[in-house]
Amino acid sequence: MYSNKKIVQSLGEILKAKSIFHIVISPGSRNAPIIIHFTQHKDFKTYSIVDERCAGFFALGIAQEIKKPVILSCTSGSSVVNYYPSVTEAFYQNIPLIFLTADRPKEIINILEEQTIHQENIFQNHVESSIQLTEDETKLGLWYNERLINESINKCIEKKKPIHINIPFSEPLYETTEFLHVKPKIINTFPVKNCIEKTKYYRKEKHIWKKSKKKMILLGLYNTGKELEKILNKLSRDPTIVIFTETTSHVYGKFFFSCIDQLLFSMKDTEWIKLKPHILLTIGGNIISKKIKYFLRKNPPKYHWHLGENNRKNYPDIYYRLNTYWPIEPEFFFKIFHVSSLESLKSSDYRYKWEKLRKCRRKKNNWFLKKEKSFSDLKVLFCIFKYIPNHSVLQLGNSTIIRYYQLFDEKKHSVESYCNRGTSGIEGSVSTAIGYAVSSKKKVTLIIGDISFFYDSNALWNNYIPNNFRLILINNGGGNIFRSISEYKIPEKIFNFFETKHLFTAEKICEMHNWKYERVSNKFSLKKSLDIFWNKSDIPCLLEIDTQKSNNAKILKKYLSYLS
């Protein structure tokens, strides 16, 4: 059984031809043709998520895991706008999502017809393609729609960006047919091979790279890095190169510097000037560390080059010193560009100086954590990170959790970690983690702060959560991160509007959704709980850790000061 709407039939066949099979549906009436067609089509994997904001992030989590586009469908009106947070996150995280929004016929928009808004191009600043289909079922009308659909989906696949397809539907909406009445044309594209024209600029910059004794490679948000990881591991032995990575970079190496904030937070400007690179080569998206941004902006390198696929509308000149933008994949750049300089630059001690500093910071880090006895966010999270199962997936909440994880080495080499750092919002971390877990065979753990958890608690209203999903909730009674990042002493009366103090727990939420719940407030019960937390269970588990009695901001500042 299929919808009798030919445009829906064409859409389904084109998606099938391009091997896009996962669709997250939010209930409604105007999108009834899509619901009927895709739920009855044996080739598609369908999910029903009521809350469109949760649905968007749930789909994002699936796409993170399967590395393919995921489809979403909702009814008309305000439900469309609820997708927007996930649209922006997918755009800046380079996650391919296909937003199918049902609409009223164009002729009745803006005449006080119910459940109508201006949906055409509503996401235009944050999608790779935004198309408006027609209801014309003539041969010419079908050709027009199918051409637009092919073009838009191909952009989604090639650019790894979200797209928006707005589809008007006139009543009747629920009519069906036993047979398909379309055979749409499938238009394929082939990626252009990476190429660098060997001009005088190319030869000049290759010479600069070869002669430089101080090169820093800095990786931000990067989701597909296995081949790049091999290349960088070879490069990391070069004494002229230091490789800085973050939690969301997804590359690991023995000689990589993976705890940027532990290394830099207590560094003085005079120290940085001695260690700053001659060439900064950046790869990937957003950088979490505020400290490295500060240093690279205040005392920038002579050259800043950025590598990336040609899917950016603007140059990523975040340090205000960009000299060259290479719109190519990093793997290709290093294959054709890098010249080994090990023989000619044996005298360089650049990497050695950074390694010496790291050794000192690690020693102080270990000593502080050993002697600090508080049941604080710092100590609790350090303990938790050591317990995360090897070869599992760790999803991290914004903003406290990800910043603490950046400080420590524990498990980073054996755990795949994710965080919504495209826009760094708190609204979809739970939904994203659950979406990832639904499509993964690995154990998935989400560690999240209280405000972010409660903000996205509708994510638990979901029939697909696997029993091995684990959620660790750090409840410090409000947004403590603002006490840590503020450089000024803010009066307590004003601070209430930053921090959002509360006395809530997750117990009743877990009870409502049939989750196993446990709450701990001291180190002995914490370790006892963590010892069995990942054991097999019949339902998902949530462990809530109460750190409200500790002055978390003060302890973190003391730790960072001690590193100097």
Report on the structure:
β11 (279-283), α11 and β12 form a beta-alpha-beta unit. The chain is globular and about 70 Å long. The longest helix is centred in the middle third of the chain and has 22 residues, at 350-371. The protein is of the alpha/beta class. 39% of the residues lie in helices and 16% in strands. The termini are far apart. The chain folds into 3 domains: 2-171, Rossmann fold (3-Layer(aba) Sandwich), CATH 3.40.50; 200-356, TPP-binding domain (Rossmann fold, 3-Layer(aba) Sandwich); 372-562, Rossmann fold, CATH 3.40.50. The strands form 4 sheets. A 6-stranded parallel beta sheet has the order 3-2-4-5-7-6, with helices on both faces. The chain has a 6-stranded parallel beta sheet with strand order 15-14-16-17-19-18, with helices on both faces. A 5-stranded parallel beta sheet has the order 10-9-11-12-13. The mean pLDDT is 93. It contains 22 helices and 19 strands.
